[in-house]
Specification:
Radius of gyration: 28 Å
Number of strands: 34
Shape: globular
Distance between the termini: 29 Å
Strand content: 15-25%
Structural class: alpha+beta
CATH class of the largest domain: Mainly Beta
CATH topology of the largest domain: Immunoglobulin-like
CATH architecture of the largest domain: Sandwich
Bound molecules: tryptophan, zinc ion
Helix content: 40-55%
Length: 911
């Protein structure tokens, strides 16, 4: 028997089919916040394919009142928190079980299972929350048909929702009422949901292509209804997109979204009853930014797309999580790109996605929590809802789509559903369907090797070098791949790496690509000037023929594989790509390489100087070479480039991304170097920023489309830079204009950007603006989260950030039990404010330890997320490293640490 609190590792290799199936479940809930009674009647049957075993039902924090087998009492025992029934009838006949339990939703601070939030009931069952509601085979490969009856006080809980169709409702004695729901689809327990409370809905009737009618509903608290229009529009767009692009239609009469303010993650795809964090539902132009609008569209799409990729075809076990998450992220990314429209807007979305991958997933893949897209083991599955499983998993699906083509991918999806609809399957099954639907494709040719993307962790590095032979008119490119060792995986085999490439001529034209056929080299054309080479060997040489002029290779276009590309471009080659590459992604990439190079040179130059000497270093005012400044000015002034692209190209590589390139990191040096670069970019281009601001500051009536949100982004960026320039010059005009902009703004994007410019530039006008922002929005939780986050992320002036954060968590508006609010302050400081967090005295790390320990007592899932903020501590230079190690040891020493946090801390200490 497992002792409580003792970590237990689950291995993928140990998978065994369940000894029992559950065919039907009939649940009756008597909902009461203090004591909810759950009657679970289920019909179970032995799995004839495995040797007979007792029935082990999972449970967690349940009070068991009664167990009946075929209507009669029975003996049972407990193993840990599992309920074990050993004396069930032999044979293949179904067995009827009746299990009666109670639980305490109002005391459920983990927000897993059944809990209350603002007086309403919600559930969260993925991954293993259903066992906190009733005893069950709480694993995704056990799929059952559900009937659910909800009973509650009609006055307090007028709305009663569960999965599927409402078949009956009515009154009960003593002011209570009931609703009965039947889900027409079988599902695993993690997709179960119920909601009960005082909610209102925006409703929309739609007709599918097939002519079926559906009712769509978005449920929110009374008063929030006018903020649901964008979510409803996003849902309708998602439904139309999945039909048009993949032929997948809505398979339910009714599809519901419900918003709650207390939620551990973004949203959840429960069949027919998606439950969302309010952050990804509620929007009005007065309260939500363009980024919020885009996130809502993307998350609504994501959860809706799970209806097929997740719900109809689900995961055999939790190691296969990326089967549904990687695929569904790929689908939501494609959806957002298709919604964005123009090629340039698509590229902006791609750049945003790659930025997340490189600043969050690449570090994960190089750190103590490195794991393959399909992990091999875990202690706590909640710790594996990661950027590797989601974002890298999406890249692995994206590469498959590149290797079979857009049409081929649609064929693969069709075959996947023909084979696996209604099943719980594996990542292998998905890749096999893709390959089988596309015989002869590079994916089919290299399937076994391609699947290393699922089994090997770590970010491969591709080193490129080329030479031009003017007389032969050939350009010869050598590409070598190598993947560094990662936690638990000392050596790697070569990957299948699609490298999309082209040649940019010295005159700026895109040269025709002709690749010499070579034994063992697979390549295909995307257009006359862009081909994809499929690397399979450690080193491969590609010869381009008919190259009539000097050229610069444009490699890994559109980020065709999740790798680090090492190419010794000269600065002038990078500026050439920035000016002329036909691939918008690589134009942006050139801007980032230029910036990164300057940052790394200056960091190296300062590494031997004591931190204290740096701030007033004479070099700082001239950290940026003139050609770089001129290249950036050219981008900013380019009449053909979209504002959104300019905004991204003029954003310096983040501190996280710069840090990733270093073996030993002094976060203060990284911070100071980047600050100095930004200061000069602001000052030297001040006139250009002012021009850009005038060009973009007026976007007319608010609409969150790609073009006008791009303009607002560039206008906001310009204001920030103008305030940063003013900080150095003593100018008062731009901070004044920014404050006026803050006051006059017609939408939250402009208002927030102005406020942020004042705060981030350290303007003396910031405190006043923050105060008036608070006065305007103190009753809006989501806007107050922004208010908290902005201050927790504010620049550190002589150690000011930590005391400011300590003051924020003492405010009456702060509530650590609410995950959004905890994230807005604690995470914004520990993960989003490196200059303020990495203090030489270690006080930032001590604060982190305190907060991890505090959170762990009531919400281990959120605590474990915060614990990850220090998981790359071994990369830190002294004195940071020792101080971080002490903080980690302090967390490790906490009595009764959750498995969630213990797993993270153990990995951080051991790797
Ligand atoms: N499956 C959800 C998604 O769409 C993720 C999720 C939501 C989740 N809430 C959770 C995972 C709680 C674990 C625990 O990506
Ligand atoms: Zn998902």
């Amino acid at each position: 028997m497992m002792r409580e609190g003792q970590a237990h590792t689950v291995y993928r290799a140990d998978y065994q089919a369940p000894a029992w199936w559950i065919e039907t479940v009939d649940l009756t809930f008597d909902l009461d916040p203090a004591k909810t009674r759950v009657l679970n009647k289920m019909r179970v049957r032995r799995n004839p394919d495995v040797p007979a075993q007792p029935l082990h039902l999972n449970g967690d924090e349940l009070n068991l009142a009664r167990v009946l087998v075929n209507g009669a009492g029975t003996s049972f025992k407990m193993e840990g928190s599992d309920l074990v029934l050993e004396n069930l009838p032999e044979g293949s006949e179904p067995v009827d079980l009746e299990i009666f339990t109670t639980c305490v939703p109002e005391k459920n601070t983990k927000l897993m299972g059944l809990y209350t939030s603002n007086g309403s009931f919600f559930t969260q069952c993925e991954a293993e929350g259903f066992r906190r509601i009733t005893y069950f085979l709480d694993r995704p490969d056990v799929m059952a048909m559900y009937t659910v009856t909800l009973r509650a006080s009609k006055a307090l809980f007028p709305v009663l929702l569960s999965n599927g169709n409402l078949v009956e409702q009515g009154e009960l004695p003593e002011g209570r009422h009931f609703a009965k729901w039947v889900d027409p689809h079988k599902k695993p327990s993690y997709l179960f949901a119920l909601v009960a409370g005082n909610l209102v809905a925006r409703e929309q009737k739609i007709k599918s292509r097939a002519g079926n009618e559906h009712l769509l509903q978005v449920y929110v608290r009374p008063g929030d209804l006018e903020k649901t229009e964008h979510a409803m529009n996003s849902l309708m767009a998602s439904i139309a997109w999945d039909e048009a692009r993949f032929g997948l239609s809505l398979d339910l009469e009714r599809f519901m979204i419900v918003a709650t303010s207390d939620f551990n993650m973004g949203a959840m795809e429960n069949k027919g009853l998606n439950i969302f964090n309010t952050k990804y539902v509620l929007a009005s132009q007065a309260t939500a930014t363009d980024a919020d609008y885009a996130n809502i569209e993307s998350v609504v799409g994501h959860e809706y797309f799970h209806n097929w990729t997740g719900d109809r075809v689900t995961c055999r076990d939790w190691f296969q999580l990326s089967l549904k998450e990687g695929l569904t992220v790929f689908r939501d990314q494609e959806f957002s790109m298709d919604m964005a429209g123009s090629p340039s807007a698509r590229a902006v979305k791609r750049i945003d996605d790659v930025r997340v991958l490189r600043t969050v997933q690449f570090p994960e893949d190089a750190g103590p929590m490195a794991h393959p897209v399909r992990p091999d083991s875990y202690v706590e599955i909640n710790n594996f809802y990661t950027v590797t499983v989601y974002e890298k998993g999406a890249e692995v699906v994206r590469m498959q789509s590149e290797l079979v083509g857009r049409e081929g991918f649609a064929k693969g999806m069709k075959l996947y559903f023909e084979r696996h609809d209604g099943q719980a399957v594996t990542c292998d099954d998905f890749a096999q369907a893709m390959a089988d639907a596309n015989p002869g494709s590079p994916l089919a040719q290299h399937l076994a090797q391609f699947k290393r993307w699922y089994s090997q962790s770590g970010t491969p590095r591709v080193a490129a070098s080329g030479t031009y032979d003017a007389s032969a008119q050939t350009y010869t490119l050598t590409l070598s791949q190598h993947c560094p060792a990662t936690a638990g995986q000392p050596s790697k085999e070569p990957f299948v790496i699609p490298v999309t490439l082209g040649l940019v001529g010295a005159d700026g034209s895109q040269l025709p690509v002709v690749i010499r056929a070579t034994e063992g080299l697979s390549a295909f054309a995307n257009s006359a000037t862009s081909h994809t080479v499929v690397l399979t060997q450690p080193t491969q040489t590609i010869v381009f023929e008919g190259v009539a002029q000097e050229s610069t290779p444009s490699l890994l276009r559109n980020f065709s594989a999740p790798v680090v590309l090492e190419m010794d471009y000269s600065d002038s080659q990078l500026r050439h790509l920035l000016a002329h590459d036909a691939d918008a992604f690589n134009r942006w990439e050139a801007s980032q390489r230029l910036g990164l190079r300057i940052a790394l040179q200056n960091i190296a130059a300062r590494a031997n100087t004591a931190s204290a000497d740096i701030t007033d270093s004479a070099l700082d005012a001239n950290i940026l070479p003139t050609p770089y400044i001129e290249a950036m000015r050219a981008v900013l002034r380019d009449p053909l480039l979209d504002a959104a692209f300019k905004d991204l190209a003029l954003t310096l590589p983040s501190e996280a991304y710069i840090t990733e390139q270093l073996d030993s990191v002094d976060p203060q040096i990284v911070h100071q170097v980047r600050e100095a670069m930004r200061q000069q970019l602001a000052t030297d281009l001040a006139a250009d920023w002012a021009w850009a601001y005038e060009q973009c500051s007026n976007t007319g009536a608010y609409a969150p489309d790609a073009v006008s949100s791009g303009k607002r982004a560039l206008a906001g960026h310009a204001l920030l830079m103008l305030c940063v320039a003013a900080r150095a010059s003593g100018d008062k005009v731009w901070p004044g204009k920014t404050l006026q902009r803050f006051k006059d703004a017609g939408n939250m994007t402009d208002r927030y950007n102005a406020l942020s410019a004042l705060v981030v530039s350290g303007s003396e006008l910031a405190p006043h603006a923050l105060q008036s922002f608070h006065a305007m929005f103190k009753n809006d939780e989501l806007v107050m989260d922004k208010w908290f986050a902005l201050q927790a992320g504010a620049p550190d002036v002589d150690g000011s950030a930590l005391p400011a954060v300590r003051a924020l968590i003492k405010l009456p508006d702060f509530n650590i039990k609410n995950p959004n609010r905890a994230r807005s302050v604690i995470f914004s400081y520990c993960s989003g404010n490196p200059g303020g967090f990495h203090r030489a005295d270690g006080a930032g790390y001590a604060f982190w330890a305190e907060q991890v320990i505090t959170l762990d007592d009531f919400n281990p899932q959120v605590a474990a997320r915060l614990a990850r903020a220090l998981d790359r501590w071994k990369k830190l230079a002294e004195p940071y490293r020792t101080a971080a190690g002490e903080a980690i040891a302090k967390v490790a020493a906490k009595p009764k640490l959750s498995n969630d946090v213990r797993e993270i801390i153990t990995q951080a200490m051991n790797h």
